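Is this the right way to post structure tokens for a design question? Let me know if I should format differently. Anyway, here goes:
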């Protein structure tokens, strides 16, 4: 029941939407089922929006399940970093002409670790996510934001730099949803409970756990 998570296009009539995990080729990008990228200019080109991502650095882009990512996303990875503790930040070594002898050691470069997007995250148009950022489950990132630091689960955040505007739900409901982890259910269970998952009736949502 439902779309095939292993298809490139969940809906063949809407070619601007692709399931990302089925179009990526880099081993350092990991994406969960049903997460999609929407871009009328070619959603299959998602990897071109993950920049400065070099395997020798070891950082990964990890995106959970059921995320919705809009056109213009830019994940800037750790390879974009220049050394900052020296007099100049200029990368002489990549220009050639003998300057490559001044290649910095990896430990001299800022390294922020993996970039992680949780499950059921909605990212609006033209958002830039900086290296090492973690975005929690259920978060919403407003269009044109620059995400420079962690965004907690089930928060709405926007701006440059991106800041939390408000929580989507109260702490009790957030804790319940994080424990529920509906995105890990089998497809048939999601389908059976989809009416409740798409509802604002918290009594119905809480009743899911009793199924």
């Amino acid at each position: 029941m439902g779309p095939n998570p292993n298809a490139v296009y969940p809906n063949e009539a809407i070619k601007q939407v692709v399931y990302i995990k089925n179009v990526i080729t880099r081993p350092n990008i990991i994406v969960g089922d049903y997460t999609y990228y929407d871009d009328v200019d070619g959603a299959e080109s998602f990897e071109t929006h993950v920049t400065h991502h070099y395997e020798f650095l070891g950082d990964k882009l990890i995106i959970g399940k059921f995320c919705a990512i809009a056109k213009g996303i830019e994940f800037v990875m750790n390879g974009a970093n220049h050394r900052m503790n020296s007099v100049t930040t200029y990368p002489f070594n990549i220009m050639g002409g003998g300057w490559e002898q001044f290649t910095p050691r990896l430990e001299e470069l800022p390294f922020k670790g993996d970039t992680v997007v949780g499950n059921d995250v909605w990212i609006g148009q033209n958002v830039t996510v900086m290296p090492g950022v973690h975005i929690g489950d259920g978060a919403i990132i407003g269009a044109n934001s620059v995400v420079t630091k962690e965004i907690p689960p089930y928060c709405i955040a926007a701006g440059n730099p991106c800041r939390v505007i408000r929580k989507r739900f109260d702490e009790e409901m957030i804790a319940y949803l994080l424990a529920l982890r509906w995105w890990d259910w089998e497809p048939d269970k999601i389908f059976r409970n989809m009416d409740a998952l798409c509802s604002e009736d918290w009594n119905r949502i809480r009743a899911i756990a009793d199924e």
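Format looks fine. Someone answered above. Worth noting: Residues 81 and 100 are 17 Å apart (CA to CA). Helices lie at 171-180, 187-192, 194-197, 202-207.
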